[in-house]
Amino acid sequence: MNNRLLETYKAHLLTARGSSVLTAETYGATIRLFFEFSSRKQADPSLADRELCIQFFLERADLGIEGKTLARDLAALRSFFSFLVSSGIRSDNPASLIEAPKRSQRLPRVFDQTQVDAFLSAIELDRRGGLRDRCLFELVYSCGLRVSEAVSLSLQDINIQERSILVTGKGNRQRMIPFGQTAAEWLGRYLREERPDLAGKQRTSAVFLNRYGRRLSRKGIWKRFQEIELRSGLTGKIHTLRHSFATHLLEGGADLRSVQELLGHADISTTQIYTHLDSDSLRLYHADFFDNYRAESDISDHDSREADI
User: Which residues form the active site (predicted)?
Assistant: First the structure.
C-alpha cells in the first residue's frame, strides 16, 4: 500500500507539479524514510500528526543530519501531506505547523581565475573524450551551469551564431545564457571533431556523450571532474565552477539581479550569498581579474570566456 502511495506521489510531482526527476527522487527518498520510521512506531504515515513528524526529525537530527538537509526533508514532508490533502486522503497538513530549521550559511568555495585556468588546462586533449571534457567544463564555468543542466543540454538548445544556450533548470524554468568566444571555439571543435566519433551509429540530440554514444550522466561528469581535479592539484566540486562564475561576474561589476537571472535562482536571496565573501579576498580577486584578463574587454560584450565568466 505504502509503495503504491509513494509512486503515486512521485508521479504527482513530475506531472502535476512539474518537478524535476531529481526532485521527485530526492523527496521520494525522504518519504520512504518517513514510511519506515512510521512503521517502527506502528503508525499509519498517511494519518501522521505533528508529533510523529517532530519525532521523525528528532531521530534524523540524532543521526547527525542537520541544516540544509533537514530543511529539505521538511519541504518533502510538507509536499507529501499537501498531496494527500489534494487527493482527499486527509484534510490537514501537519508538517506545515513545524518551523523549518535554520540553515548554516556556508560561504561557497570558489576558484580564482588562475585556478580556473589551471583546472581547464589539466584536461588531457589527446585522450578520447578530452575535447568533450574541455568543452563541457568550459560551458559549466562560462554559463554557470548546474550538473543536471549540462547533462540535459541538447543540440537544439545551442545557437553558435549568437553564442547562447537555452538552459532548462529547476522547476523546468528556462533561461537563455550567452557564452564567450573561447567557449564557442571549444564547442565548435567538439561538435566537429569528436562528437561524431562518440555518437557512432547512435542517433541522439544530447550534446555531451559517453563512450557508448549515449547522453553523459551526472555520475560520468562527476568521475571526469574528480580525475581532472587530481591532475590539477585543486580541491573543489563541479558546483565550484558555478560559484566561481557568479563570484567573478559580481567582482567584474555585474549587478545582483543579472547574476540571479543567469544562475536561474528563483529567489534573489539565494544569489546574495555571493556578496558575503570576504572583502579583502574580493579586492584581491578583483585586482587580479582585471589586471590579467579585463584590460581591454567589456563584461557586457561577452567576447571571451574571461569576459562573461
Answer: 146, 170, 239, 242, 265, 274 (o-(3'-phospho-dna)-tyrosine intermediate)
Place 299 in a pLDDT band, splitting at 50, 70 and 90. Answer: very low
Could you tell me the CATH number of the domain that includes residue 259? 1.10.443.10
Chain mean pLDDT for the chain: 86
Q: Which of 12, 78, 132, 242 is catalytic?
A: 242
**Per annotation, catalytic residue among 9, 141, 274, 293:** 274
Specify if 180 maps to a domain.
Answer: yes
Give yes or no: 248 in active site. no
* 302 annotated active-site: no
Is 296 found in the same domain as 174? yes
In a domain, 81, yes or no: yes
**At residue 140, what are phi and psi to the nearest 5 degrees?**
-55, -45
> Among this protein's residues, is 265 annotated catalytic?
yes
Residue with cell 580541491: 235
pLDDT tens-digit series, residues 218-245 = 999 999 999 999 999 998 999 999 999 9
Question: Distance (Å, rounded) from C-alpha 199 to C-alpha 210?
Answer: 8
237 φ, ψ (degrees, to nearest 5) = -130, 170
Q: Are strands 174-178 and 158-159 parallel, antiparallel or unpaired?
A: unpaired
Residue 46 and residue 117 in one domain: no
User: Annotated catalytic residue: which of 32, 218, 237, 239?
Assistant: 239
pTM: 0.62
Q: Is 223 a catalytic residue?
A: no
